[in-house]
Amino acid sequence: MAVNDYIRERFFPHLWCPGCGHGIVLNGLIRAVERLGMSRNEIVMVSGIGCSSRISGYMDFHTLHTIHGRALAFATGVKLSKPELNVIVPMGDGDALSIGGNHFIHAARRNIDITAIVMNNRIYGMTGGQYSPLTGPGMMATTAPYSNIDQGFDVVEMARAAGATFVARTTTYHVQQMADIIRSAVLHEGFSVVEVMSQCPTYFGRKNRLGSAVDMMTRMKEMTVPIGSKKKAENPDLIERGIFVQTDKPEYCSEYNRIIERAMGGR
């Protein structure tokens, strides 16, 4: 299929702000699906509420635009009822790890075959620039006018600790790596988490005097290194990117089917 076959062109132009990184994530997702050669009917995309969640409206798959923080709960129901489908869940940092944090850790614990894409722009963009669980201390936000004092989550470490069997991180600057990682995440049989560090020049960038979208993307290039890079040993503040976890464990839907068979006495 051609790239345009995966897009609902009637909903364009999109509503994201100029310079927003979410459009780059949309591009990476399309490229990954195109390389997988999947039919649109093989994919279900489930999203919650927020700037990032608008991505489901632009993709011509089966889509569910649900309520804030509950995308993974809806996606779990979809996957259990139609385990043959590939379920992809794009979320923002607040949607995934604030109100949705409980669903996130339990989806990882169950190892259900869902691909969770966490677009980390470190802010609540749609509702006015409030700080999120990933904003980090010392950063400014509309709800932290004198700087934020909350420590931020590490998405990779949280996903790993909760039991996700595929965990990766990339950025909107590293577009080819992003497409490759999303492709691997979709192919993985188990709960996959892909953190994409993304820029929000409108709220996070402006509040923290980080410059334009290009400046923010350049900073992501400079502050990240591949896993195992010598630069990380020299500068512990650098952030690693790549695939951190890729292991095989029993997948939830398969195990659930065994329970059904056992309950039916092997019939």
From TrEMBL:
Residue ranges of domain Thiamine pyrophosphate enzyme TPP-binding in the record: 49-196
Listed GO MF terms: oxidoreductase activity, acting on the aldehyde or oxo group of donors, iron-sulfur protein as acceptor; thiamine pyrophosphate binding
InterPro entries per the UniProt record, alphabetical: 2-oxoacid:Fd_oxidoreductase, THDP-binding, TPP_enzyme_TPP-bd
Claim: Oxidoreductase is one of the keywords in the record: yes
Database matches in Pfam families: TPP_enzyme_C (PF02775)
The keyword Chaperone appears for this protein: no
GO biological process assignments: cellular respiration; small molecule metabolic process
UniProt superkingdom: Bacteria
Keyword vocabulary terms for this entry: Oxidoreductase
Protein name stated in the entry: 2-oxoglutarate ferredoxin oxidoreductase subunit beta
Species of the source: Desulfosarcina alkanivorans
